[in-house]
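User: structure tokens for this one?
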Amino acid sequence: MSVSETVRMTKQRLEPVANEESLQQAKLLVAAVVGADVSALSVHSWMEISDEQLRILGELIERRVKGEPLQYILGEWEFMGLPFVVDRRVLIPRQDTELLCEIALERIRNYAYRDVLDLCTGSGCVAIALQKLAGVIVTASDISSAALDVAKENAKISDVRIALVKSNLFGSIEGDFDLITCNPPYLSRMDMEQLQREVTFEPASALFGGDDGLDFYKRIAQEYKAYLRPGGTLLLEIGNTQKESVSALFPKNARVLNDLSGNPRVLIVENFEL
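Assistant:
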């Protein structure tokens, strides 16, 4: 079976899962099996796929049909133009979170920030992107040892040095910082009961933010001032229905920026007046 025929077959198998995305997902799976970049598949469209490759592809298709996220099946995903290993130990890096990084990079440039703390780092995507793209000194923390193992692997892949600390939010953090970033667990109990099938594969501890989804924001609001330098900035990703509830926990100068879809996404708290 040729590559082009295999892509068509894979798309047909995936269509019940995600009709509008099935072709792209099919290309990514076939590219992974044949060891080619997805952009080069058309060049190899008439290359024959071996029986062993078809067997492996069949296993990947079955995993996807059962709802496993494509990112976990591929074992890696891109964030801010950088490659990241991802598996069920960590959340999948999402495009929405790139806004957090972009704001952080702008603040680093505008205010010459040097020391950054990334809480709830997970795969390390935010911490690693900031170090790689801005050259800042980064401390990345997570309560999960398994997540920190993934972040360590990703730091090695991107050839960056970041300090990794096992910590329950600020619990084991020492010192203060110019910039603090965090994409905390923020789903409520109701949200957790209504998760899309793909999201159920991700670690619940990185998703659940308490009955109202605000547990982590409440703790951060109580503790961040001791770790944020004068003139520093706290950046928090929030859920698209949490603008008012999270903003109410912080000073009046806190504001929220929307993502590309127009949803509230990043809370900015400046330590200029404290």
